Amino acid sequence: AGGVGPSGLILSKFARSREQMPPPHERSAQPAPGWAARATHAAVQALVAELLARPEPPAPAALALSLRRSHPQLGPELAAEVATQLELSLRARRRLPTWAAAGAAWHRQALEQATSEAAAQRKWAGFAGEHALDLPAGLGVDAWALAQRYARVTALEADADRAALLRHNLARLG
């Protein structure tokens, strides 16, 4: 499934074939399927925004346990996700300030691999046109920078959860 996002971005995902899947022993290092639903969950996003607005956000390491006590309705998985999203949001502030300010949701590996906003702006500064393709799109930083220069950008991401995160974040950026 896909759709047209902000600035005329065409958001898509495509499924991997079995031949492209990593061997079973490598899959365990990957987050459980559906992690994007936890990362983009409204309660998780609202609580992370509230914590980030504090003058001194709490240390993410002990946060999951304290949230299980103070917000039992979250359950253990969402409480842990709040701690993860807070940690990654704090890390992202320097490299992706616009994204962090917009309340983006994160994936640890995608954040580590993402181009910084400044680098994406420099990389695509001399380009403009009708249509650009970002493949693989990851968090969509390059797609976001390209959308400022191209009439239409197609952002493709093979992983369904990363594609969901991409859609969520680009919608947040407007």
Using brief descriptors, characterize the structure shown:
174 residues; alpha/beta; four-stranded mixed β-sheet; 4 strands; 52% helix
Largest sheet: 4 strands, mixed
Structural class call reads: alpha/beta
> Portion of residues in helices?
40-55%
Number of helices: 10
Overall geometric form: elongated
Helix-strand topology string: EEHHHHHHHHEHEH
Termini separation = 20 Å
Low-confidence stretches: 12-29
What's the mean pLDDT score?
A: 85
- What is the strand content? 5-15%
Number of strands: 4
Strand ordering within the main sheet: 1-2-4-3
Radius of gyration equals 17 Å
Describe this structure as you would to a colleague.
Helix 9 (141-147) links the parallel strand 3 (129-134) and strand 4. The protein starts with a strand and ends with a helix. It is α/β, with parallel strands linked by helices and 174 residues long. The longest helix has 21 residues, at 75-95. The chain has ten helices and four strands, in the order E-E-H-H-H-H-H-H-H-H-E-H-E-H. Residues 12-29 have low confidence and may be disordered. It has helices at residues 24-27, 35-39, 42-52, 60-70, 75-95, 97-101, 108-113, 117-123, 141-147, 160-173, and strands spanning 3-4, 9-13, 129-134, 150-157. A four-stranded mixed sheet has the order 1-2-4-3.
Helix/strand layout:
Elements: E1 3-4, E2 9-13, H1 24-27, H2 35-39, H3 42-52, H4 60-70, H5 75-95, H6 97-101, H7 108-113, H8 117-123, E3 129-134, H9 141-147, E4 150-157, H10 160-173
Parallel strand pairs: 2-4, 3-4
Antiparallel strand pairs: 1-2
